[in-house]
Write a structure and sequence with these properties.
The structure is a single chain. The protein is α/β, with parallel strands linked by helices and 269 residues long. The protein has one domain: P-loop containing nucleotide triphosphate hydrolases (Rossmann fold, 3-Layer(aba) Sandwich). The strands form 2 sheets. A 6-stranded mixed β-sheet has the order 6-7-8-3-9-10, sandwiched between helices. It has a 4-stranded antiparallel β-sheet with strand order 2-1-4-5, covered by helices on one side. Helix 6 links the parallel strand 7 and strand 8. Helix 3 packs parallel to helix 5. The radius of gyration is 19 Å and the shape is globular. The relative contact order is 0.16. It binds adenosine-5'-triphosphate and magnesium ion (MG). Adenosine-5'-triphosphate binds next to strand 2 and helix 1. It holds the Pfam family ABC_tran. It comes from Streptomyces niveus. It is found in: Cell membrane.
Amino acid sequence: MAKPGTGAAAEPDAGAPAIEVRDLHKSFGTLEVLAGVDFTVARGEVVCVIGPSGSGKSTLLRCVNRLEEPTSGTVLVAGAEVTDPDVDIDKVRRGIGMVFQSFNLFPHLTALQNLTLPQRRVLGRDKAEATRVARERLARVGLTDKESSYPAQLSGGQQQRVAIARALAMDPQLMLFDEPTSALDPELVGDVLAVMRSLADEGMTMLVVTHEMSFAKEVADRVVFMDGGVIVEEGSPAHVIGAPSHARTRSFLSRLLDPAAARIGPSGD
Ligand SMILES: Nc1ncnc2c1ncn2[C@@H]1O[C@H](COP(=O)(O)OP(=O)(O)OP(=O)(O)O)[C@@H](O)[C@H]1O
Ligand SMILES: [Mg+2]
């Protein structure tokens, strides 16, 4: 098997961590958004990334499946070097489910069709198999009765659960979530978090950018706090959220707990 870092297009390695990021840098023009990030996500681990707006959380997530080209550094997914120019990036991406704040469902397709289309196009599944998998995944997110609904006929929370089911239909080894509940009305957040919690309980490897501290506290194996393009601290939720070591983490958490203070804060977020 090709060793990571040799420049060869590495095959997924069953023993390798789910994600390994080494000295990752990303600049947009003169703006350095990631200033040397190192971290590892083990298989089956749930890691929540928290931090202020603009700290580089989404950019980090997008570098994992190379939706963003890193300026330098190495990203390995299941041992395959994503940052290798010769890697089969489509193959790597097939193993990674991604759920964004905006659901990006096809408006002209039903919930069921939103799940079957990528399976047929990308995985080459036949209609019967794609439909079987789609129904199973819709059941898993509690939307069996909505398979014939179009996105406009679903609530935001239901649409997000369809988006999660769509990602799950591709049998990913790893799920990336970028603030999956932040566009939702408060009363719809719980159902989406419940689905994510059940995925975590089933052993799915998850990297989750979130502002939901109670979710991070209960579900994360590890919490990573980012600020200014670096990881300021990481550790158990009890440590990072419950008893943070760094002043920057404490200040972020107190602004999060006191939205009024955040609104009048200098950064305006
Ligand atoms: N394509 C781009 N071109 C130029 N600048 C960008 C681009 N994408 C992101 N940035 C900048 O990079 C910085 C980090 O953005 P990023 O989206 O990673 O932050 P974030 O931590 O996810 O913030 P939020 O909590 O608001 O989602 C921001 O200053 C942003 O304006
Ligand atoms: Mg973001």
